[in-house]
Amino acid sequence: MSLWSLVSHMPPEPFSGLFGEFPRDLRSLLGDWLENQPWEFITGADSFCTGAAGALLSAMVEKLRGLAGGNGQQCQALQHISNLENTYRRDPLRLVAIVKGILEGERAALLKRDRHLPLSFHRRQEELKFGLDLQRLQHRVGEIQALQERWKQMGDGTRACRQPNLQDPQLKTDGKLQGNDLPALILEAVKELEGAKLQVLNRLHIWKRQQQLAGNGAVFEENLAPLQKRCENLVDIYFQLQQQVVAVGGELGSDLLSR
């Protein structure tokens, strides 16, 4: 059960002031689609988050274009498309912040009324977070590969001479990493990979617990394919990182290499 299927039948009073820049009729047009995107997990302003926000804006526009063919919705959808592109194309992170506020307000109103959220909501949020974390890892791998290629192109020399300019748009990374080097970027990727691994292990623990409860008659989803896909994706990223660590092992030093 989606949040919108519950919220849309509530009186308008709990949502007063919630739909300022983002009209309620636009929220209604997007329906379940809006809450099935990882808005709340885009938490920074780095190149990855900006790109993810831009992708969500493009996906929203495409969703509305699909609705524009429906009877009675064409003019409404086209107007919203124009407004979205004119308002947020240069600052998609602003759209993310606005949608976050709307979804948080809807959840708060539902919690106040029902004291809980549907179990399906929590499962979907967990899936959205892992999906975005995986995209972030893939983005990080791309950054490392680009930086590594740059080091190779600069040839031999002292490390100070080989230090790349991280202000280069092609190599620019998170603010917290600017001014550091390839080893720091690799360590950050390893840290993020560990976080994603813990999510998979936690989901596996939940699956095992549900399997135990099934003996008492609880509903149990036996399909392990989604978990297997998660593991395969992480293993793929793991091997890419391993190859990159081997390639620049001399630059890392023994201490960092062991980490």
Automatic annotation (TrEMBL):
Keywords: SH2 domain. One of its GO terms (molecular function) is DNA-binding transcription factor activity. CDD domains: STAT6_CCD. This is Signal transducer and activator of transcription 6. InterPro entries: STAT, STAT_N_sf, STAT_TF_alpha, STAT_TF_CC, STAT_TF_prot_interaction. The gene is STAT6. GO terms for biological process: signal transduction. Residues 2-116 form the STAT transcription factor protein interaction domain. It comes from the Eukaryota.
